[in-house]
Amino acid sequence: MSDEDVKRNIYKIGEIFTMVDQLPQPTIAAINGFAFGGGMELALACDFRVAAAGTQMGLTETSLAIIPGAGGTQRLPRLIGQAKALELILTARRLKAEEALEYGLITAVVKKESLLDECMKFADMMLANGPVALQQAKYAVKQGMNADLQTGLQIERKAYEVTIPTEDRLEALAAFGEKRKPNFKGK
């Protein structure tokens, strides 16, 4: 592959991962087996990462004389901090799932045979809440993290205001008063 082909391909991959990162809905990466390089960068683009026991992961590109080029150098430090991210990237260290959990790289380690079930349970916990609220909360956190506190608070306020006129908010109030679970419709 020519240098130009490599540049074009990594740019396309990075764009796809950014699209995943910017989805308004919460995203969960179910990691099983090995997630090195681009596989880890895709997982980093998700909001949550759940790994099967025995999984290994890392941004190992420096061992190939390149760097993570699809968002890894930017997403990893935002997740676990600059020093830990540099340690993992510069050493090309491969982490076992339990170590990744200690680093804050993943949300949970589960049995391999129950990985998808556990991810679905986690998704169901979120789905029990108002869809518009989920999207606006994700938006407020992600956008606010890239701003100073005052700007972040303004972002939060505007996101909150989006939820006020929703049918789901009124349904939640009615359900609370009637002591039943709300039936959200995403409106």
Secondary structure layout:
Blueprint: H1 3-21, E1 28-31, E2 34-36, H2 38-44, E3 48-52, E4 56-58, H3 72-80, H4 82-91, E5 95-96, H5 97-103, E6 108-110, H6 115-127, H7 131-145, H8 149-163, H9 167-177
Parallel strand pairs: 1-3, 2-4, 3-6
Antiparallel strand pairs: 4-5
Helix pairs in contact: 1-2, 2-3, 3-4, 7-8
InterPro entries: ClpP/crotonase-like_dom_sf, Enoyl-CoA_hyd/isom_CS, Enoyl-CoA_hydra/iso, Enoyl-CoA_hydra_C
Keywords: Lyase
Family: Belongs to the enoyl-CoA hydratase/isomerase family.
Protein traits:
187 residues, mainly alpha, 2-enoyl-CoA Hydratase, Chain A, domain 1, 3-stranded parallel sheet, 6 strands
